[in-house]
Amino acid sequence: MKLCQYHWNKLIEAIQADGLGDLIPQGPLELVRRIHSRKADGINQTNFDPVSLANDLITIWSVSSIGRDDLMSAASQCPICFFDVPQWIEKASNDSGEAWRKICSF
Ligand SMILES: [Zn+2]
């Protein structure tokens, strides 16, 4: 499942509103560097990406909400639209901010 453009923009807006805008990777090279770094070293202050984390959370919630019968029809759709859960945007952004504050407190 992949967020539609509308909900993708909403997610970016929510993350910026939560004060995490400066942590969003600038450009595809930085995005890829952080993905590789997270795989190699786990999540830390140098590879944190609030958008990726929020998006992963939405994917996890989707997988746990989905029925087996829905799986095929839902796969190509935006999870927020499919489940009609606009509140997940705010929750994912909040949880991402909480994760960042935890990482910084180590
Ligand atoms: Zn959508």
Report the β-strand fraction as a percent range: under 5%
**Count of separate structural domains:** 1
Number of separate helices: 6
- Provide the succession of SSEs: HHHHHH
Mean of residue pLDDT? 94
Question: Which small-molecule species are bound to the chains here?
Answer: zinc ion
> Unreliable segments (pLDDT under 50, ≥5 consecutive)?
none
Main sheet makeup: none
Shape: globular
Separation of the first and last Cα atoms: 33 Å
Helical coverage, percent range:
55-70%
Structural class of the helices, strands and pairings?
A: mainly alpha
Radius of gyration: 14 Å
According to DSSP, the number of beta strands is 0
Any key phrases for this structure?
106 residues, mainly alpha, 6 helices, binds zinc ion
What does it look like?
The longest helix is centred in the last third of the chain and has 19 residues, at 87-105. With 106 residues, this protein is mainly alpha-helical. The protein has six helices and no strands. Bound molecules: zinc ion. Residues 3-4, 6-7, 78, 80-81 line the site of zinc ion.
